[in-house]
Structures are given as C-alpha cells and as structure tokens.
Design brief:
By secondary structure, the protein is α+β, with helices and mostly antiparallel strands. The chain contains 14 helices and 34 strands. Helix 7 runs parallel beside helix 8.
C-alpha cells in the first residue's frame, strides 16, 4: 500500500516540473538522488553517533574528519592513493568583541540530509547546474555558554561549511577564526590582497614566500592529481567579505574579515567557506560557488538579460568617452561586427566634439546597438583626478531616478567602478545596486570591485566583475608585456573558476605598453576567459582590418555557455578549454611559455554527428599573423597545433548534421 501525504503530492508536482524543465538529465539526477538517499540513510545512524567519524562525499573521494573537538582534517582519495590535503585547526567566529567566543568546539552531529537541486544560470560556464551533495549539521559550543552549529556540505567536487547562530540580534560578528593549515612544500598560486583584486598569481611552494595578506581564490596542489581552490560564497547584507592572513605562522592562513560594524537583526549564518577539490578539470569546471549561493527571488521573467560581446573604448582612448566622434566609431564597430553592445566609459557626462550623451544614445539606436554606460560608485576614488559622473547612485532616491532615466532611454546596463573594498557597507551597497538595476531591467558589470562570490545566481543581472589584472594594465605599467603569457594561462585555473571575469581581452594592436602575445593567443582569450559581457579591447581600425573569417568569429561568439570542459593544461604553461553553446563548440588554446609548444587534443567532447571546424592558428611566417583553415571533424578526430611562444589557437566547431 502507498500512502501519499499532501506534502508528498506537492513534492511529486515539484518533481514533475523539474522533469519538464530539465528533461532526461534531471530525471537521471533525480533517480541518482533517490539511490543516494537510500544509501545515505542506511548509514546515517551509525555516523551520527560518532562525532569524530569521517564523513564522505557522494563519490567517496573526499573525506572530512572531526579531530578532537576543535578541528577538521580534509583528505582526498584517488584510486588507492590517499592524500592528506590539509587541516582546519581552528573554527568559529568572534562576537561582540569577545575573542574567546571564536574558539568553537564540536559537540557532535545533530542531523544529516542529502542535497539535490537543479537550477539554471543565464551567465557563466554552464547553463544547467546540479547542486548535489550531503549536508551534516554539528552542534557546537563556544565561550562560557554560547551555542551554535557547523553546517558542513560534501560534494563530489569539494566541500563547503559555514557557522550558524540563532538569536544573535543586536550582536556584531567582528572576526573569524577559521584557519587553513597549508604544509610547506605545497605548490600554490595565490595573489597578494588588494581591494581591486588586480594582482598576479605567482607560483610558490612556501607560506613564507606568499604575501602576508592573500586574496581569494587560492589554488593549491597537494599531490599530482589532487588540487584544491579556496574561496568563499554566500555574502549577504550582514557580511563583510574576507581574505587570508598568515602573518603569525606561515603555514596557517586565517580567514580575516574586512570591516563589519553592522549588528545582526536575528538568526545569523556566516558566508560559506568553499574548497573546490579534485583533479584540475574538476576544479575548473566546478559550479560549487553558485551551488551554495542563494537562488534568485525575482522569478524567471529575465528575458531582458542577454549576455553578449561589447565594443570598448577605454583601452585605446582613456578619455575617449568625452569625445562624441570617438564614441561614434565604437558604435560603428559594434554595428559592423554585429555585436549587441557598445560601452560608453568614464567621463561621458563631459562629452563634447559634436554631441553629448543623448546624441550618442540616439546614434546607437539608429545603428541597432544597445549601450552600456559607466558610473563611479563614489565610495572610494572621488578626488585627485578621479573620473565621473559622481554621486548619482549612492542615495536610494538618486539611484532610482538615474536608473529610471536609463531604462527610459533604452540603455542595456551599467558598469560601476571604484568600490571601497570588501567592507560590509560596500557589500550592502553592491546588493542595493543590483536590486535597483533589476527593477529597471539593467544588467550590471562591477569594476574595481571584489571577486564573484555567487551573486550571479542570486542576482542574475550581475553579468561580470573585473577583479583581475587585465588587459587595461597595458595602459598603466609595462609589467604585463613580459608576464602576460604566464598570467593568461594561470587565470583559467584561479580567478575565472569562481565567476565571470571582465579581463577585456583581444588586442591585436598596442596600447601605451606593447603586448608580445600572438594574434591567435589574443583571439583565444575570448573563449578561454568566461565573461557574460565580453569587452573587446582593440581599436576599431585594428579589428576591422582582420580577415573576414576573424570578423565573422566575433559576430557569432557567445558570451555565456551551456557547458565547459577543460581538455588539458597546467597553470602558467598552457590551457585547452572547450565551451559549448547549443550544438556548437569553441575551443581556445593558449601557450603561456616563452618557447614554442606542440599542443594536441582530441574531440571526444563532441556529440554524435559531423562538424565543420574553422581554426585560427599562429602562422609562424613573417608578416602573416594568421593561419586559417577548415576541415571536417567528429568525436573521433584529433588536432595537433604548433603554438608559437606566447601563442595559441581558436577552433570554432559547428555541427552540420
């Protein structure tokens, strides 16, 4: 006999809707969830009775053990090899200035449950995502009479944990004691913390060699096939973002909060501490940052959110948006290449030379090009030569008036720049901007801002974030010229893992300081680097002078993807990245070395059928930057490329039947 409760009927209806939305993929995942639940609950009672017992990811590769009552040990199992990755020797948060409140003790497991959720993304590396794992809740104590919980989630591609305290209204969480103990000798790629997140990720093997204050994400290699990337997700209004500090002990990277002076209004949870783990492709392809983040609350009426490629004036003309005639050139470029967008950058409120901002908007409309418009956040750099416009978005009433004007004018979105670090007021301001922009159907691109921490799921109109040492630095300093090859082949394994990255790629000509990457390398950046608004850095005359096949490549280039596959690569050396949109694939190849490389890969990621490939490769001959060729390929095909020093290639693969 089968008895269905009302809640069971509702669950069945919900499940049917999932099947309708996601098809067989979700049905398969749902059946896997049922099997996982049966296996999980058969062992739950045994595990729950042992506070120190290890808990295991669904695929059995990741194990987390509670050691004593104050620390966690993280292990990775690959075949018969067990890698003791690292420990987390200290847990907890400090409340109301009481440092002892941070020393949490794990009393025992309270509950556990399987997690399964299908969700869609309009931006990023994958359109259909599956959030599947197991959550364990541990009872904890701190101080003399404090009580809280540790929520620990295990996934096939990593772990996430956070702290939870009920009834914390009126208190301020001012510090955190979470510490990652990284043994000396572990290979690491970690950037020095800067509020703009614009630094390199140098390779080191010692905490003594890394900066005393380090930024997320931090990439670590514990064994040949065991990688981990540390970051955070789930920043809410009561939170400051954090960084990592290892001043006291070189091996101990402590989570260090930016300024947070806002009192909690009720029950409280921390951001998620996220550790993506596995082989290098597990790390690169992971959606764990958005998996643990809060879903959007504005339903599915987001047809106005449209990722796309953008013509961008600032790289070649720092003050170009003052000049109406220059702005027209970039609108004409977008029209000629069939790009959906052009960005009018800083100082547009001072536009002259034949027209103003209203004239530019009208001209773009006549060309069928949508505009993005730049604003200074007016929270950090507002003097000593800072560009405007200023103070148009800070007050709610001013922000609503400005965004309503943009909506009326048909503007597609805004780029907002120069934020005041990772403090709680700045995080709240960012969320205010995103929510207000959504009310007026405006997409958002944050610059001079913190890295993505899952907001692209919570706020689908967040299209991209800078938070990267990008191509605009060819304007500022000569250092990128010699380091771009290594840097560009490190970013896919570090910064771009956690979310869209507005690097502003693809420059065939030079800015103030030259680039020595090849044309094919530059073109490949548009595929290897994921950004839902992909800003092209180069001049109109340079882009329009390229062969017709290159111009057509830009016209058909997606900016958000249905799937992403890391085919091969190693930080600082090379990368082969495949991304799919519909039935078609784009493959970007980068050589990060100062010597030539032979790079080979097969097309096993293709589906059944025949495909036509157009490849853009390094020429190798003087005066001929391109070698463009066509061929038929299938899933059994392979390709070998001769990449020049700091070279690369791009393959556009179209399904024909």
């Amino acid at each position: 006999m089968v008895i269905l409760s009302m809640s069971g009927i509702k669950t069945s209806i919900s499940t049917f809707r999932y099947f309708k939305a996601y098809g067989f993929q979700c049905l398969r995942n749902y059946c896997h969830e049922v099997l996982l639940s049966v296996l999980f609950f058969c062992t739950a009672s045994f595990v729950c009775n042992k506070a120190s017992a290890g808990v295991v990811s669904p695929n059995g590769r990741i194990v987390v053990e509670v050691q004593g009552d104050t620390s966690l040990a993280v292990k990775y199992i690959d075949g018969k090899s067990v890698c003791r990755a690292f420990t987390i020797p200290s847990l907890g948060v400090a409340v109301d200035g009481n440092s002892e409140s941070g020393r949490w003790r794990v009393a025992g497991m309270k509950s556990s449950r399987p997690l399964h959720e299908c969700y869609t993304m309009q931006t990023g590396k994958r359109s259909e995502c599956v959030n599947e794992g197991i959550e364990y809740i541990y009872a904890c104590s701190y101080g003399t009479d404090g009580h809280g919980r540790l929520a620990l989630r295990l996934y096939d591609d990593g772990i996430a944990f956070r702290y939870e305290i009920d009834g914390l209204a009126g208190s301020v969480v001012y510090d955190e004691f979470t510490t990652y103990r990284i043994p000396e000798g572990v290979e690491r790629y970690i950037q020095r913390f800067d509020p703009s997140y614009e630094n390199f990720f140098p390779k080191t093997t010692s905490g003594r060699e890394s900066a005393a204050n380090s930024a997320y994400p931090a990439l670590l290699r514990f064994a040949p096939e065991c990688w981990a990337l540390i970051t955070e997700a789930g920043i809410e209004r009561c939170h400051a973002a954090s960084s990592l500090t290892n001043r006291a002990v070189p091996t101990d990277y402590k989570v260090t909060l930016a300024r947070n002076d806002r009192a909690v209004t009720g029950d409280w949870v921390s951001p998620w501490r996220v550790i993506i783990m596995g082989h290098l492709d597990d790390v690169v392809e992971s959606t764990l940052v958005t998996d643990v983040s809060r879903p959007a609350e504005n339903g599915t009426d987001n047809g106005w959110i449209k990722p796309g490629v953008v013509s961008w004036i600032y790289w070649a003309h720092n003050h170009g948006s003052r000049d109406f005639m220059l702005v027209k050139q970039y609108i004409d470029l977008a029209c000629a290449l069939r790009l959906p967008y052009a960005l009018i950058d800083a100082e547009w409120d001072e536009m002259s030379n034949g027209g103003n901002i209203d004239d530019a908007i009208d001209y773009a409309a006549s060309k069928g090009v949508k505009l993005m418009i730049w604003y200074n956040s007016s929270t950090a750099w507002v003097n000593n030569g800072a560009p405007g416009p200023f103070y148009r978005l800070n007050k709610p009433e001013d922000r609503e008036r400005e965004f309503a004007w943009l909506e009326k004018k048909g503007i597609a979105g805004v780029k907002i720049d120069f934020f005041d670090g990772d403090t709680q007021p700045t995080m709240e301001y960012c969320m205010d901007l995103l929510e207000s922009a959504a009310r007026h159907n405006l997409m958002v691109n944050f610059h001079g801002a913190t890295i993505p921490r899952g907001w692209q799921r919570t706020y689908p109109n967040l299209m991209s974030v800078e938070g990267v040492y990008g191509a605009e630095w060819y304007n500022n300093r000569p250092v990128l010229t010699d380091r771009a090859g290594v840097h560009n082949t490190t970013l896919p394994f570090t910064r771009n893992v956690v979310g869209s990255m507005d690097y502003t790629p693809c420059a065939f000509s030079d800015s103030q300081h030259p680039h020595i990457t090849t044309h094919a390398h530059e073109l490949a950046l548009t595929v290897v680097f994921e950004s839902a608004l992909q800003h092209l850095a180069d001049r109109p005359e340079s882009l329009l002078a390229q062969p017709e096949d290159v111009r057509n490549f830009f016209s058909s280039l997606p900016a958000a993807w249905d799937d992403t596959k890391l085919i091969s690569g190693y930080p600082g050396k090379s990368v082969v990245m495949a991304r799919r949109k519909g039935d078609n694939w784009w493959v970007g190849v980068l050589n990060g070395l100062d010597v030539s490389q032979e790079i080979s890969f097969n097309f096993g990621f293709l589906g059944v059928g025949d495909y036509e490939l157009v490849s853009f490769e390094d020429s190798g001959s003087t005066g001929a930057p391109w070698r463009i060729s066509r061929r038929k390929v299938s899933s059994s095909s392979s390709l070998s490329l001769s990449a020049l020093p700091r070279g690369g290639a791009v393959c556009a693969v179209r399904k024909v039947r």
